[in-house]
Design a protein that fits this description.
2 domains; 18 strands; 15-stranded mixed β-sheet; Molybdenum Cofactor Biosythetic Enzyme, Chain A; globular; Rossmann fold; three-stranded antiparallel β-sheet; binds adenosine-5'-diphosphate
Protein backbone atom coordinates (compact mmCIF):
# COMPACT_ATOMS: atom_id res chain seq x y z
CA UNK A 1 0.00 0.00 0.00
CA UNK A 2 1.26 3.49 -0.75
CA UNK A 3 2.23 5.39 2.35
CA UNK A 4 0.41 8.66 2.99
CA UNK A 5 1.96 9.84 6.24
CA UNK A 6 5.62 9.43 7.14
CA UNK A 7 6.95 10.22 10.61
CA UNK A 8 10.49 10.34 11.93
CA UNK A 9 10.96 10.00 15.70
CA UNK A 10 14.12 10.98 17.54
CA UNK A 11 13.98 7.98 19.90
CA UNK A 12 12.53 4.50 20.16
CA UNK A 13 9.89 4.76 22.86
CA UNK A 14 8.81 8.12 21.44
CA UNK A 15 8.15 6.31 18.17
CA UNK A 16 6.02 3.62 19.86
CA UNK A 17 4.13 6.32 21.73
CA UNK A 18 3.33 8.09 18.43
CA UNK A 19 2.48 4.78 16.74
CA UNK A 20 0.05 3.87 19.53
CA UNK A 21 -1.75 7.21 19.36
CA UNK A 22 -2.07 7.13 15.55
CA UNK A 23 -3.28 3.51 15.60
CA UNK A 24 -6.07 4.42 18.08
CA UNK A 25 -8.11 5.48 15.07
CA UNK A 26 -7.87 2.03 13.47
CA UNK A 27 -5.60 3.08 10.59
CA UNK A 28 -2.77 0.79 9.60
CA UNK A 29 0.48 1.90 11.26
CA UNK A 30 3.88 0.37 10.85
CA UNK A 31 7.01 1.23 12.83
CA UNK A 32 10.54 0.64 11.55
CA UNK A 33 13.45 0.40 13.94
CA UNK A 34 16.02 2.47 12.10
CA UNK A 35 15.88 3.18 8.38
CA UNK A 36 15.25 -0.12 6.55
CA UNK A 37 18.20 -1.33 4.46
CA UNK A 38 15.97 -2.27 1.56
CA UNK A 39 13.65 -0.07 -0.50
CA UNK A 40 10.02 0.18 0.68
CA UNK A 41 7.79 -2.83 0.05
CA UNK A 42 4.61 -3.91 1.82
CA UNK A 43 4.34 -0.49 3.42
CA UNK A 44 1.47 0.78 5.56
CA UNK A 45 -0.49 4.01 5.03
CA UNK A 46 1.27 5.38 8.10
CA UNK A 47 4.97 4.63 8.43
CA UNK A 48 7.07 5.69 11.40
CA UNK A 49 10.84 5.44 11.50
CA UNK A 50 12.39 5.27 14.97
CA UNK A 51 15.86 6.80 15.10
CA UNK A 52 18.20 7.34 18.03
CA UNK A 53 19.22 10.90 17.31
CA UNK A 54 17.91 13.00 20.19
CA UNK A 55 21.37 13.77 21.50
CA UNK A 56 23.63 12.72 18.62
CA UNK A 57 25.86 15.37 16.97
CA UNK A 58 23.74 17.73 14.83
CA UNK A 59 25.34 16.70 11.52
CA UNK A 60 24.67 13.07 12.25
CA UNK A 61 21.06 13.76 13.24
CA UNK A 62 20.50 15.67 10.00
CA UNK A 63 22.08 12.91 7.95
CA UNK A 64 20.01 10.19 9.65
CA UNK A 65 16.74 12.08 9.34
CA UNK A 66 17.42 12.84 5.66
CA UNK A 67 17.98 9.14 4.99
CA UNK A 68 14.72 8.40 6.77
CA UNK A 69 12.97 11.12 4.77
CA UNK A 70 14.25 9.67 1.50
CA UNK A 71 12.93 6.22 2.43
CA UNK A 72 9.51 7.63 3.40
CA UNK A 73 9.30 9.61 0.16
CA UNK A 74 10.12 6.48 -1.80
CA UNK A 75 7.30 4.77 0.10
CA UNK A 76 5.04 7.49 -1.34
CA UNK A 77 4.49 9.66 1.75
CA UNK A 78 2.90 13.04 1.06
CA UNK A 79 2.84 14.49 4.58
CA UNK A 80 5.66 14.32 7.11
CA UNK A 81 6.06 14.60 10.86
CA UNK A 82 9.15 15.19 12.99
CA UNK A 83 8.49 13.74 16.44
CA UNK A 84 10.46 14.78 19.48
CA UNK A 85 9.86 14.69 23.22
CA UNK A 86 6.96 16.53 24.84
CA UNK A 87 9.51 18.27 27.07
CA UNK A 88 11.31 19.64 23.97
CA UNK A 89 14.53 17.80 24.92
CA UNK A 90 17.27 19.68 23.07
CA UNK A 91 20.22 22.05 23.57
CA UNK A 92 20.95 25.43 21.96
CA UNK A 93 22.70 23.46 19.19
CA UNK A 94 19.79 21.16 18.47
CA UNK A 95 18.63 18.71 17.41
CA UNK A 96 14.98 19.76 17.10
CA UNK A 97 15.48 23.01 15.17
CA UNK A 98 18.31 22.05 12.78
CA UNK A 99 16.59 18.80 11.80
CA UNK A 100 13.27 20.60 11.23
CA UNK A 101 14.99 23.22 9.08
CA UNK A 102 16.80 20.57 7.02
CA UNK A 103 13.58 18.61 6.52
CA UNK A 104 11.77 21.79 5.47
CA UNK A 105 14.45 22.55 2.95
CA UNK A 106 14.31 19.04 1.51
CA UNK A 107 10.52 19.24 1.25
CA UNK A 108 10.40 22.80 -0.09
CA UNK A 109 8.32 23.86 2.93
CA UNK A 110 8.50 27.51 3.94
CA UNK A 111 6.77 27.12 7.28
CA UNK A 112 6.20 24.52 9.99
CA UNK A 113 4.75 24.36 13.47
CA UNK A 114 6.19 23.28 16.83
CA UNK A 115 3.71 21.78 19.26
CA UNK A 116 5.12 19.43 21.91
CA UNK A 117 1.92 19.75 24.02
CA UNK A 118 0.38 16.55 25.41
CA UNK A 119 -2.46 17.74 27.66
CA UNK A 120 -3.49 14.17 28.68
CA UNK A 121 0.01 13.76 30.13
CA UNK A 122 0.17 17.24 31.66
CA UNK A 123 2.27 18.96 28.99
CA UNK A 124 0.69 22.26 27.95
CA UNK A 125 1.87 25.37 26.16
CA UNK A 126 0.60 28.88 26.90
CA UNK A 127 2.04 32.04 25.35
CA UNK A 128 4.89 29.92 24.07
CA UNK A 129 5.77 28.64 27.55
CA UNK A 130 5.83 24.90 28.15
CA UNK A 131 4.45 23.51 31.39
CA UNK A 132 5.00 20.06 32.90
CA UNK A 133 1.93 19.61 35.09
CA UNK A 134 1.74 22.88 37.01
CA UNK A 135 5.44 23.65 36.74
CA UNK A 136 7.14 25.68 34.03
CA UNK A 137 9.52 23.38 32.10
CA UNK A 138 12.62 25.06 33.59
CA UNK A 139 11.36 24.39 37.14
CA UNK A 140 10.42 20.75 36.42
CA UNK A 141 12.81 17.80 36.95
CA UNK A 142 13.85 18.35 33.29
CA UNK A 143 16.06 21.21 34.50
CA UNK A 144 18.50 18.54 35.76
CA UNK A 145 18.40 16.15 32.82
CA UNK A 146 21.94 14.81 32.32
CA UNK A 147 22.02 15.31 28.53
CA UNK A 148 19.41 17.96 27.74
CA UNK A 149 18.91 20.13 30.84
CA UNK A 150 15.97 22.43 30.11
CA UNK A 151 16.80 25.76 31.74
CA UNK A 152 14.23 27.93 29.95
CA UNK A 153 10.48 27.30 29.61
CA UNK A 154 9.90 29.55 26.61
CA UNK A 155 9.83 27.54 23.39
CA UNK A 156 10.53 30.56 21.19
CA UNK A 157 13.69 31.35 23.13
CA UNK A 158 14.67 27.65 23.14
CA UNK A 159 14.14 27.35 19.39
CA UNK A 160 15.71 30.62 18.22
CA UNK A 161 19.38 29.62 18.66
CA UNK A 162 18.67 26.29 16.95
CA UNK A 163 17.42 27.72 13.63
CA UNK A 164 18.45 30.29 11.04
CA UNK A 165 14.99 31.59 10.05
CA UNK A 166 12.59 33.68 12.18
CA UNK A 167 10.50 32.15 14.97
CA UNK A 168 6.96 33.26 15.87
CA UNK A 169 3.95 32.35 18.02
CA UNK A 170 0.34 31.40 17.36
CA UNK A 171 -1.09 31.79 20.86
CA UNK A 172 -3.95 30.07 22.63
CA UNK A 173 -6.40 32.91 21.97
CA UNK A 174 -5.96 32.36 18.24
CA UNK A 175 -6.13 28.56 18.55
CA UNK A 176 -9.32 28.79 20.64
CA UNK A 177 -11.02 30.71 17.81
CA UNK A 178 -10.72 27.66 15.55
CA UNK A 179 -8.91 26.34 12.47
CA UNK A 180 -9.72 29.32 10.25
CA UNK A 181 -8.26 31.84 12.71
CA UNK A 182 -5.16 29.68 13.13
CA UNK A 183 -4.69 29.35 9.36
CA UNK A 184 -4.96 33.13 9.04
CA UNK A 185 -2.39 33.65 11.78
CA UNK A 186 0.00 31.24 10.07
CA UNK A 187 -0.52 33.07 6.77
CA UNK A 188 0.19 36.47 8.31
CA UNK A 189 3.31 35.15 10.03
CA UNK A 190 4.41 33.66 6.72
CA UNK A 191 3.97 37.06 5.06
CA UNK A 192 6.37 38.43 7.69
CA UNK A 193 8.87 35.69 6.82
CA UNK A 194 8.29 33.58 9.96
CA UNK A 195 9.21 29.99 9.14
CA UNK A 196 9.01 28.42 12.61
CA UNK A 197 5.74 28.83 14.50
CA UNK A 198 5.32 27.70 18.08
CA UNK A 199 1.63 26.87 18.60
CA UNK A 200 -0.02 26.97 22.03
CA UNK A 201 -2.21 24.10 23.22
CA UNK A 202 -3.59 23.51 26.70
CA UNK A 203 -6.38 21.02 26.02
CA UNK A 204 -7.12 18.10 23.70
CA UNK A 205 -9.62 20.24 21.77
CA UNK A 206 -6.78 22.58 20.84
CA UNK A 207 -4.94 19.67 19.23
CA UNK A 208 -7.91 18.93 16.99
CA UNK A 209 -8.03 22.57 15.87
CA UNK A 210 -4.29 22.60 15.20
CA UNK A 211 -4.36 19.31 13.26
CA UNK A 212 -7.29 20.56 11.19
CA UNK A 213 -5.64 23.91 10.44
CA UNK A 214 -2.23 22.41 9.64
CA UNK A 215 -3.14 19.18 7.86
CA UNK A 216 -1.91 20.46 4.52
CA UNK A 217 1.50 21.65 5.67
CA UNK A 218 4.09 19.29 4.18
CA UNK A 219 5.88 19.05 7.54
CA UNK A 220 4.52 19.21 11.08
CA UNK A 221 6.68 18.89 14.16
CA UNK A 222 5.83 18.16 17.76
CA UNK A 223 5.19 15.57 20.43
CA UNK A 224 2.97 12.62 19.65
CA UNK A 225 -0.30 14.24 20.77
CA UNK A 226 -0.59 16.88 18.06
CA UNK A 227 -0.51 14.09 15.46
CA UNK A 228 -3.19 12.06 17.25
CA UNK A 229 -6.21 13.78 15.61
CA UNK A 230 -4.80 13.49 12.08
CA UNK A 231 -6.06 9.96 11.24
CA UNK A 232 -9.65 11.01 11.97
CA UNK A 233 -9.28 13.78 9.41
CA UNK A 234 -7.80 11.39 6.83
CA UNK A 235 -10.55 8.81 7.43
CA UNK A 236 -13.19 11.52 6.96
CA UNK A 237 -11.55 12.62 3.73
CA UNK A 238 -11.17 9.05 2.47
CA UNK A 239 -7.38 9.41 2.35
CA UNK A 240 -6.91 6.24 4.43
CA UNK A 241 -9.09 3.25 5.33
CA UNK A 242 -9.60 1.79 8.78
CA UNK A 243 -8.21 -1.71 9.30
CA UNK A 244 -8.26 -4.01 12.25
CA UNK A 245 -4.63 -5.08 12.42
CA UNK A 246 -5.33 -7.43 15.31
CA UNK A 247 -7.82 -9.54 13.34
CA UNK A 248 -5.20 -10.14 10.70
CA UNK A 249 -2.81 -11.60 13.24
CA UNK A 250 -3.96 -14.91 14.70
CA UNK A 251 -0.50 -16.18 15.44
CA UNK A 252 -0.15 -14.61 18.83
CA UNK A 253 -1.94 -17.57 20.42
CA UNK A 254 1.30 -19.01 21.83
CA UNK A 255 2.61 -18.75 25.40
CA UNK A 256 3.81 -15.46 26.88
CA UNK A 257 6.75 -14.16 28.89
CA UNK A 258 7.43 -10.95 30.82
CA UNK A 259 10.95 -9.49 30.61
CA UNK A 260 11.48 -6.47 32.81
CA UNK A 261 14.64 -4.37 32.87
CA UNK A 262 13.06 -1.10 33.96
CA UNK A 263 13.64 0.07 37.53
CA UNK A 264 11.14 2.92 37.50
CA UNK A 265 8.76 3.34 40.41
CA UNK A 266 5.81 2.15 38.33
CA UNK A 267 7.61 -0.89 36.93
CA UNK A 268 8.57 -1.90 40.47
CA UNK A 269 4.88 -1.83 41.38
CA UNK A 270 3.91 -3.69 38.20
CA UNK A 271 6.44 -6.45 38.86
CA UNK A 272 5.28 -6.77 42.49
CA UNK A 273 1.65 -7.03 41.35
CA UNK A 274 2.48 -9.73 38.80
CA UNK A 275 4.59 -11.71 41.31
CA UNK A 276 1.64 -11.55 43.68
CA UNK A 277 -0.39 -13.77 41.35
CA UNK A 278 -0.32 -17.40 42.47
CA UNK A 279 1.63 -19.97 40.46
CA UNK A 280 3.67 -17.48 38.44
CA UNK A 281 7.17 -18.82 37.62
CA UNK A 282 9.58 -15.98 38.37
CA UNK A 283 13.32 -15.35 38.36
CA UNK A 284 15.10 -12.24 39.55
CA UNK A 285 18.27 -11.32 37.66
CA UNK A 286 20.98 -9.69 39.72
CA UNK A 287 23.66 -7.72 37.85
CA UNK A 288 26.32 -8.75 40.40
CA UNK A 289 25.55 -12.43 39.86
CA UNK A 290 25.45 -11.92 36.09
CA UNK A 291 28.90 -10.32 36.29
CA UNK A 292 30.23 -13.29 38.21
CA UNK A 293 28.60 -16.29 36.59
CA UNK A 294 26.85 -15.14 33.41
CA UNK A 295 23.34 -15.73 32.15
CA UNK A 296 23.58 -19.53 31.77
CA UNK A 297 21.63 -20.43 34.90
CA UNK A 298 18.77 -18.10 33.96
CA UNK A 299 18.52 -19.69 30.51
CA UNK A 300 18.59 -23.11 32.11
CA UNK A 301 15.86 -22.07 34.57
CA UNK A 302 13.71 -20.82 31.69
CA UNK A 303 13.97 -24.07 29.77
CA UNK A 304 12.53 -25.96 32.80
CA UNK A 305 9.44 -23.81 33.32
CA UNK A 306 5.82 -24.48 32.46
CA UNK A 307 5.57 -21.82 29.74
CA UNK A 308 1.78 -21.81 29.80
CA UNK A 309 2.03 -20.03 33.19
CA UNK A 310 3.66 -16.87 31.74
CA UNK A 311 7.06 -16.77 33.44
CA UNK A 312 8.59 -13.45 34.41
CA UNK A 313 12.31 -12.65 34.38
CA UNK A 314 13.13 -9.31 35.93
CA UNK A 315 16.08 -7.21 37.02
CA UNK A 316 13.68 -4.56 38.28
CA UNK A 317 14.89 -3.48 41.71
CA UNK A 318 14.46 -0.72 44.28
CA UNK A 319 16.66 2.39 43.94
CA UNK A 320 19.02 1.30 46.77
CA UNK A 321 19.79 -2.04 45.12
CA UNK A 322 20.27 -0.35 41.73
CA UNK A 323 22.66 2.18 43.26
CA UNK A 324 24.65 -0.58 44.93
CA UNK A 325 24.99 -2.57 41.71
CA UNK A 326 25.97 0.60 39.87
CA UNK A 327 28.54 1.52 42.53
CA UNK A 328 30.14 -1.93 42.32
CA UNK A 329 30.00 -2.49 38.56
CA UNK A 330 29.69 0.99 37.11
CA UNK A 331 26.35 2.25 35.79
CA UNK A 332 27.00 1.35 32.16
CA UNK A 333 28.28 -2.15 32.91
CA UNK A 334 25.39 -2.95 35.27
CA UNK A 335 22.89 -1.78 32.63
CA UNK A 336 24.65 -3.59 29.78
CA UNK A 337 24.79 -6.88 31.73
CA UNK A 338 21.07 -6.78 32.46
CA UNK A 339 20.16 -5.75 28.92
CA UNK A 340 22.30 -8.51 27.40
CA UNK A 341 20.85 -11.10 29.81
CA UNK A 342 17.23 -10.19 29.04
CA UNK A 343 18.04 -10.08 25.33
CA UNK A 344 19.43 -13.66 25.50
CA UNK A 345 16.40 -14.79 27.51
CA UNK A 346 14.13 -13.39 24.77
CA UNK A 347 15.88 -15.43 22.08
CA UNK A 348 15.81 -18.64 24.14
CA UNK A 349 12.14 -18.01 25.01
CA UNK A 350 11.29 -17.64 21.32
CA UNK A 351 13.14 -20.84 20.50
CA UNK A 352 11.21 -22.61 23.27
CA UNK A 353 7.96 -21.54 21.61
CA UNK A 354 7.07 -18.26 23.37
CA UNK A 355 5.12 -16.05 20.95
CA UNK A 356 4.04 -13.13 23.14
CA UNK A 357 6.62 -10.86 24.73
CA UNK A 358 5.87 -8.22 27.35
CA UNK A 359 8.98 -6.07 27.74
CA UNK A 360 9.46 -3.28 30.28
CA UNK A 361 12.11 -0.58 29.88
CA UNK A 362 13.06 1.70 27.00
CA UNK A 363 16.70 0.59 26.71
CA UNK A 364 15.65 -2.96 27.52
CA UNK A 365 13.15 -2.84 24.64
CA UNK A 366 15.89 -1.75 22.28
CA UNK A 367 18.12 -4.65 23.37
CA UNK A 368 15.32 -7.24 23.15
CA UNK A 369 14.04 -6.19 19.72
CA UNK A 370 17.61 -6.16 18.44
CA UNK A 371 18.33 -9.67 19.71
CA UNK A 372 15.05 -10.96 18.28
CA UNK A 373 16.03 -9.43 14.93
CA UNK A 374 12.85 -7.35 14.82
CA UNK A 375 13.07 -4.46 12.41
CA UNK A 376 9.38 -3.76 11.76
CA UNK A 377 6.44 -3.55 14.15
CA UNK A 378 2.80 -3.46 12.99
CA UNK A 379 0.82 -1.61 15.61
CA UNK A 380 -2.20 -3.28 17.20
CA UNK A 381 -4.44 -2.64 20.21
CA UNK A 382 -3.44 -0.14 22.87
CA UNK A 383 -2.92 -1.59 26.37
CA UNK A 384 -2.29 1.75 28.08
CA UNK A 385 -1.86 5.28 26.65
CA UNK A 386 1.25 5.12 24.49
CA UNK A 387 1.77 1.35 24.84
CA UNK A 388 0.30 -0.78 22.06
CA UNK A 389 0.67 -4.44 21.24
CA UNK A 390 2.84 -4.82 18.15
CA UNK A 391 3.15 -7.67 15.69
CA UNK A 392 6.46 -8.64 14.17
CA UNK A 393 8.55 -11.39 12.56
CA UNK A 394 11.43 -12.94 14.43
CA UNK A 395 13.43 -15.65 12.68
CA UNK A 396 10.49 -16.94 10.58
CA UNK A 397 8.16 -16.76 13.58
CA UNK A 398 5.21 -14.41 13.97
CA UNK A 399 5.26 -12.84 17.40
CA UNK A 400 3.30 -10.29 19.42
CA UNK A 401 5.42 -7.91 21.47
CA UNK A 402 4.71 -4.92 23.65
CA UNK A 403 7.38 -2.45 24.69
CA UNK A 404 6.63 -0.43 27.79
CA UNK A 405 8.86 2.42 28.81
CA UNK A 406 9.51 3.26 32.47
CA UNK A 407 6.53 4.90 34.07
CA UNK A 408 3.88 3.96 31.51
CA UNK A 409 0.91 1.73 32.29
CA UNK A 410 -1.02 1.05 35.48
CA UNK A 411 -0.08 -1.36 38.27
CA UNK A 412 -1.84 -4.34 36.61
CA UNK A 413 -0.13 -3.69 33.25
CA UNK A 414 1.43 -7.14 32.78
CA UNK A 415 -1.75 -9.13 33.40
CA UNK A 416 -3.81 -6.55 31.53
CA UNK A 417 -1.59 -6.73 28.45
CA UNK A 418 -2.38 -10.44 28.07
CA UNK A 419 -6.10 -9.82 28.54
CA UNK A 420 -6.03 -7.16 25.82
CA UNK A 421 -4.45 -9.62 23.40
CA UNK A 422 -7.02 -12.29 24.20
CA UNK A 423 -10.00 -9.94 24.00
P1 LIG B 1 13.22 2.79 31.75
O1 LIG B 1 12.30 2.83 30.56
O2 LIG B 1 12.50 2.59 33.05
O3 LIG B 1 14.19 3.94 31.77
P2 LIG B 1 15.34 1.21 30.67
O4 LIG B 1 15.34 -0.20 30.21
O5 LIG B 1 15.40 2.28 29.59
O6 LIG B 1 14.08 1.45 31.60
O7 LIG B 1 16.56 1.52 31.61
C1 LIG B 1 16.83 0.77 32.74
C2 LIG B 1 18.32 0.49 32.78
O8 LIG B 1 18.63 -0.02 34.06
C3 LIG B 1 18.70 -0.56 31.76
O9 LIG B 1 19.96 -0.25 31.21
C4 LIG B 1 18.81 -1.81 32.63
O10 LIG B 1 19.68 -2.77 32.08
C5 LIG B 1 19.33 -1.25 33.93
N1 LIG B 1 19.03 -2.09 35.10
C6 LIG B 1 17.96 -2.91 35.23
N2 LIG B 1 17.98 -3.52 36.42
C7 LIG B 1 19.09 -3.10 37.06
C8 LIG B 1 19.65 -3.37 38.34
N3 LIG B 1 19.05 -4.23 39.18
N4 LIG B 1 20.78 -2.75 38.68
C9 LIG B 1 21.36 -1.88 37.83
N5 LIG B 1 20.89 -1.57 36.61
C10 LIG B 1 19.75 -2.18 36.22
Amino acid sequence: MTTYFGAIADDFTGATDLAGLLARSGVEVSLRIGVPDSPPTGTARVEIIALKCRTSPVDEAIKDTQTALDWLRKAGAKRFFWKYCSTFDSTPRGNIGPVAEALMQALGADQTIYCPAFPENGRSIFMGNLFVGEQPLAESPMKDHPLTPMRDSNLLRLLEPQVTLPVGLANRHTVAKGPKALRERLASLKAEGVAHVVVDAVANDDLFIIADACQNLPLLTGGSAVAMPLPKIWLRQGLVNGRDVKREHRFEDGPAIVLSGSCSAMTNRQVAAFLGQAGRPSLKLDPLELAESGVGSALDWLSHQDLSKTPILYATAAPDAVREAQARLGTDRAGALVEAALASCAVVARDLGIRRFVVAGGETSGAVTKSLGVSRLDIGSEIAPGVPWCFARSEQHDIAITLKSGNFGSEDFFAKSLEVLDA
